[in-house]
């Protein structure tokens, strides 16, 4: 919690540089394909530690800020893969309202390794682009122009860099070695050489494509003569050996360029190996100033002891002031290290004046600790009204520290002695909870939650650790079997294979030994992960953004954002030496933390379990009983000893006399935002990169606040029940303890909600602009399918974060204010659980939405959303329960309704809410119908119909829709009585007819024939008959499939239509004969006369026997064979249908005239209608009486007997149409 003698006023938020989606990385070659044969084949694998360092850990990194263009403005660059890859990404924290995010990462691949010290950037004034200048180890100068669209739209990179990349081989590099590159402008570069000279490059702006792109000019420290003498053996000046090169002492190791407000000239400041600063006039190449960087006079004999190591590159910084002035800060790494500040004045005629800002004063920065060896790795200087502000980066192997100093011009030495403040850097590993019977979660789940906490480890680190672990076990294979598995599954598989379930001495399963072995293997893997992760935190550069007021530490595989400490941060991290005004509240915080730290693992877990019950369960108990119940559940009183109580009383006094309500008010003031950081209009929104800073800061802040408030809750309950004697002034006699307890619970509820949001992850559509404006459907589809992984906090609420309209504070303070407001109990950012759940459902993550249910409110819309969550989980009973609960609240008409649902509900669905119960229930019906939960569709359809009011607007439409849905659902689950009832209530005849057909077909297909016949179908019976008749006519195979003939026969018989039943039996008889069923005679095991055809004849005869003899006839369609045979007309009955019908009509006319009943009248009308039919196109039919059918039946029997007796018929017809039979023996 403390950092030595330095007060902690800042803390950092470490950002994982791993992209949220692999598709965010764009690989670009800066040379022809032929130049890549060797480098591509020598790529190292990430499965070993060497390959991991090469591909994931940068050897150089920093941030470049453009001056003339704002979107994007910041670019993070890193050198990877042994210097062959320069990775560039946008690192803007904020963006203008209409600006498009730029999430792509460009990996520029070079054919040869590049000089990490020869990388420069420029921002052209007249073109919105980023100019990149690189010198590789083959002495090639690359100039690359990157447009902002390259970082936004993947389609712009499909053709490679093209003309945006120019390669130049400078002749000046033929006999000189480049060491540092300084960019003056997009048209002018300077490369410092190993011999102390500089090589100036001026862009050739001619349009000749064959001309050299650069004009070179060489300047030397001592002129050409001195330079040439340096090439002669045994005539060289003293040199320093570095990377196989002998470097002159005048060679520059650190450079900086300043214009001081002049447009036509610039000044190059260099720190050289001989411990001197030289100032060059870039326009003329002359040296304007040379002097020791400490302004010290030294003996020439001591020259070697003052030499600077050539690897030092961050020894000078320039802060430009008014026109013609600047402040130069130099650092000497010799000895303990010392700063020197210089006032520089110049004019555009090549005159310069350099003066010591603190003459005669030694400005030696104190080391972070005296126990280790620390070196100054980088520093930054910012001009402030009260004086220069200095930020220093100290480094010790992979550890680093960042210090800050506000310098006052009048007492510089005093400031350097005791004015340093420091940044809190989290170096300790996360606490690993012990596993045991008290732990409610599985050991594997515990470790996975710890390892896969968002932003903790990169995927490359996890894969490398797993490969190294497998190699240690001897189970690693080059062709790994992990294909298709996630990294979490692979880790569980490998670690799970190391533990075997043994037996105890009693012969039972030894679960304790199994659990212990598993814990040991997980702990080994965890330590391996931590060792690999340390390498990611090696600091490479310190960057200060003077425009936004932000400090960054660029590391090997991390980027640390420095932000200001909040009040509670400052108290927590400086508990050993708090400010005077915070001494009492610091004592309270220290007492709580000390008290809880004494708990063992079991007590700590039980206390947290008791807290969860307190947070998520509503209680109607009085405060005292509620606190007593919490104490009983936690049970920490049994683990508290006299020593633990003594530690608390030593801090808070006997009987905790220093604890007052005012003290708790001060504590709550610490965790409350000082302003409404999130309640104002946003001037600038945070980018995706900036949201990662917020999420990481919230993760740290939530854990810190939760730890403090949890310890305070435990301490408050302990103090309340520790003093039992009323004479000793217990807490409840001094202030309202219950009120403090409730406020602590409310604050912890907020923090618990945020803890979940910064831990849960979901996939959201990538914001890469690849869909708009593309001509390729494949590219458009690819853009739609790409997603990236973010935390729920960023994915669901990230659009709310930005800089307030009237805020002018630096970014490192604005981030803290925003984070503190977000974590505060009375935050202006309201986390509406229902909207968060809507967003998760929209992103198809009902599992995460279900986890938010404990935080849900109990208003009607929140209850409705909980129903949607359970519906997505297919828990229909629970979903229906919540939908019924929300019915009244969401049916009442509201004048002003807040229509926010994160896109889950469209306008049509919103219109059904708060507009009456029928509309609400109809909406619920549609939800269940999408899930095909038809029983619930029926339930809520009935409810909707129940509340439909006659005469109300749209009543008919709602009723029709609900009846339709009720019918569909009932039919789908074979509730045919319900479907029949809904069908009868329909008023739309066309709809009713359509559904009637659907119902009849469904019942026939499912074999519900008896139920079909038993249903009344009031007013619809003729239609049912027509539907069945149509299906019968369409049926060809009457033995297989749905027996429509038999169903229609049963239907007509049940409705006393025997002649109709006989007609359909006749149709089935004909189709049986056509199918050859009459020839299938069973003569071996049964009655040969019992065939499908003979049985059908018997049914037909029985049906006609049920009607009066004068009505025992049916009409039969004439077959095509009979049509081709001419039949003479007769007047005596015969087979002429028209003649017979005419005779029957005459008889009925005579009888009707005598006053017969209505049935004869109806029959007569039908006969006359039939006789008046058009002759052409009508199907001819004939009349079959009962006698005809019996005759045909007898003929069928005779035919079967003849076949049985081997009597084969030879048929022929005479002139009268009679058939002669001849038996052939």
Automatic annotation (TrEMBL):
Q: Which residues form the Nucleoporin Nup120 helical domain?
A: 611-744
Describe the location of the Nucleoporin Nup120/160 beta-propeller domain by residue ranges: 73-569
What is the superkingdom listed in this entry's lineage?
Eukaryota
Coiled coil location: none
Q: Write out the annotated subcellular location.
A: Nucleus
Nucleus listed as a keyword = yes
Keyword Transport part of the UniProt annotation: yes
Locate the Nucleoporin nup120-like HEAT repeat domain: which residues? 836-1005
- Which organism is this entry from? Cercophora samala
Instruction: List the Pfam families.
Output: Beta-prop_Nup120_160, HEAT_Nup120, NUP120_helical
Q: Name one GO cellular component term.
A: nuclear pore
MF GO annotations: structural constituent of nuclear pore
Any idea which UniProt keywords this protein has? Nucleus, Transport
| Region Disordered: start-end pairs | 1117-1139
The protein in question is named Nuclear pore complex protein Nup160
